[in-house]
Amino acid sequence: MLKIISAAALIAGLSGCYSATRTTVDLGQAEQNMAAARAAGAPDRAVYAWTMADEYMKKARDEWARSDFESAESMVKKATRWADEAASIARAGGDAPSWGVEDALQDSSEPPPTPEPISAPPAEEGSGVWN
Predict the structure, then answer these.
(1) Residues contacting 70, CB < 8 A, separation 6+
(2) Tens-digit pLDDT profile for residues 26-75
């Protein structure tokens, strides 16, 4: 009887070790996918997909550190999927987005419009918080 109980305890203990080991291995593979996406230029060419992959990796590391291996595994899968997407977009030649106004103005031959000054509304007598 004692052998059965000790065998059951050993199996239960080892199943937790497998989960931790599996998640650790998957986390390492996801890091490699992230490195491949970074090398392909994903942070500049696939901004959305790269950001999603990076944030899922951060959350996966956090869950792994808290020993919540089931959640960490879920986050690792999502991070891997987004990292692969980011790498494929970057390799396909996705253009870096032009965020600045300067890029739009370079194409135009007209000078940029001059903004009009903003004036304060007229103050009314007896209105306001302190009156």
Answers:
(1) 19
(2) 999 999 999 999 999 999 999 999 999 999 999 999 999 999 999 999 99
CB 41 within 8 A of CB 90: yes
Please state the pTM of the whole predicted model. Answer: 0.60
**Mind giving me the DSSP string for 63-101?**
HHHTT-HHHHHHHHHHHHHHHHHHHHHHHTTPPPP--SH
Cα–Cα distance for residue pair 51/41, rounded to 1 Å: 13
User: How far from the centroid of its chain's Cα atoms is residue 54's Cα?
Assistant: 3
For the chain, which residues make up each domain, given as ranges?
20-92
